[in-house]
Amino acid sequence: MKKSIALLMSFVILLTLLAGCAGNNPATGNNANTVTDAQSGTTTENNEAQDAVSEAEARTDIIIAIDTDVATLHPTDTSTSNEMDIDNQIYDPLMFITLDGSTTPEPRIAASYEISEDGLTYTFHLRDDVTFHDGSPLTAEDVKFSAELYEQSIYQNARVTGMKEIEIIDDYTIAFTTETVYSPFFENIVDMHIASKAYYESVSAEVFASDPIGSGPYKFVSHELGSKIVLEAYDAYYLGKAGITNITFKILSDNATVAVAMQTGEIDFASISESNFSNLEDVEGIVIETVPMSRFGFVAMNHEKYPFSETKFRQAVAYAIDRQNMVDLALDGFGTPNSNILSPLRFGYSETQPVYDYNPEKSEALLEELGITTPYDLGTMYVAESYSTQAQILQNDLSNIGLNITLEILEFNAYLDKLLGGDYGISVLAMSLEGNTQEFELAFKSDYIGAANNARYSNPEIEKLFDDAVAAVDENERYDIYNQIFTKVQEDAVYVIMYNTEGLYAHSDALTCHPFALEGRYYVYDFAW
């Protein structure tokens, strides 16, 4: 029987969709910015408006600012927001989670699907007119190959959690079978990037990751390290060629530079820092969108090094942080203080889970119980430039309880090398684990040390509970398991959470965008001038 589509992404539908940037498919040629009165040509003002609209309509390019360069464009091994955002333009999924508030997925590579009566098998019927950017047809073999790539990924493996078997029925029909009835599997599998098996087998691993070939609306053109990534519209895209035909992702790491470039028209669209909001909010010609997110800022501590390996020490750090002050000073108020790795939007969140309020006296008592005499030198804290303000605030909070650190600011990818390699003791950063709550296993399972498990944490009890959550058929049972997991990791202060943030996008008011949901993901195919 047909399974109710209400299975889809219970988390996502809780997000508030912002309608201020609703637009049309650029392939239609419609332009939401057309000034109707200007068409009469009866006044100078109307003629000027019409000229402005014509100029906007004539544009077929867009320049998007990103704050760091990308290390890879591999379809399944992305680990940063910039990598994911670029890949989302190049690769298409089986189905597309709509951006209009509906829970019904739009067909993409898959034209339709069925779910078996026992809830274990998901059968997808693929379009027969989808081609990769090299002109080769996309078939069920490529879908199977892509799912297997996800299985091997230390960054995106959770997308195929629960998968037991993949069966290719014919060139354009494929079935996925799960170990147990596990509804989050559907929302994960439809969102996979589909890559070309033939291309993977014909080039080196390095070329596959740096010179991608997908089936999405845009194809890769070039990558100038430290400068820009260029994409262009794929003429044979099965949904029609994109109206915006050229995308340049321009790397601008300095906040002030982004603000100036936005005002001068050097860039058209950017995810902006909280500090840039005041620089741009009243600028004529610029629109700022606020996007609710479950992204969390946190202090990562390396559990393989003393004293960060000690639960009481991590708890002391958790009590030492003035989270409201962090949000006010580092985020200009664009965030919500939170000491729980789950936001209240997440399935599995409970108000009964441990909370760490600002209590430096409690911090000092815990350090004393641990036998740490202050002042105590924690050595060097490495941090990426974009988190330097947060690091300074944390440095001050820790100094108030007698813990001293020296800051060293690194270029983002150099910082990632330190973090992922375990060559650090304490740091501050932010993370977004999108989709369903099972994605959080990436931050806690030992398989993901060197990837999203920044704490280098290992606990067989927690790993078994994550496995139990996948096997749980009843949603209430799964909720109870998640509650156990997050109660335990909160008690142990595995990560010291500081806040949930809001996303901020700035763009030209001549640019019509889609509503921003899905943790702020964007798709230039649905933008228009």
Task: Describe the model.
- With 529 residues, the protein is α+β, with helices and mostly antiparallel strands.
- The protein contains 16 helices and 17 strands.
- It has helices at residues 44-58, 81-90, 140-152, 184-189, 197-202, 205-210, 255-264, 277-280, 311-320, 323-330, 360-370, 388-399, 412-420, 441-444, 460-471, 475-491; strands spanning 61-66, 95-96, 106-107, 110-115, 121-126, 163-170, 173-178, 218-224, 228-233, 246-251, 269-271, 286-301, 335-337, 376-384, 403-410, 426-431, 496-508.
- The strands form 4 sheets. Strands 1, 8, 9, 10, 11, 12, 13, 16 and 17 form a 9-stranded mixed β-sheet that branches.
- The model is unreliable at 1-49 (pLDDT under 50).
Summarize it:
By secondary structure, the chain is α+β, with helices and mostly antiparallel strands. It is 29% helix and 21% strand.
Inertia-based shape = globular
From the helix content, strand content and strand pairing, which structural class follows? alpha+beta
Q: Can you count the helices? A: 16
Average residue pLDDT: 87
Give the termini separation.
Answer: 43 Å
Number of E strands: 17
Radius of gyration: 24 Å
The parts where pLDDT drops under 50 for at least 5 residues are: 1-49
Relative helix content = 25-40%
Query: Beta-strand level of the residues, as a percent range?
Result: 15-25%
Tell me the major beta sheet: 9 strands, mixed
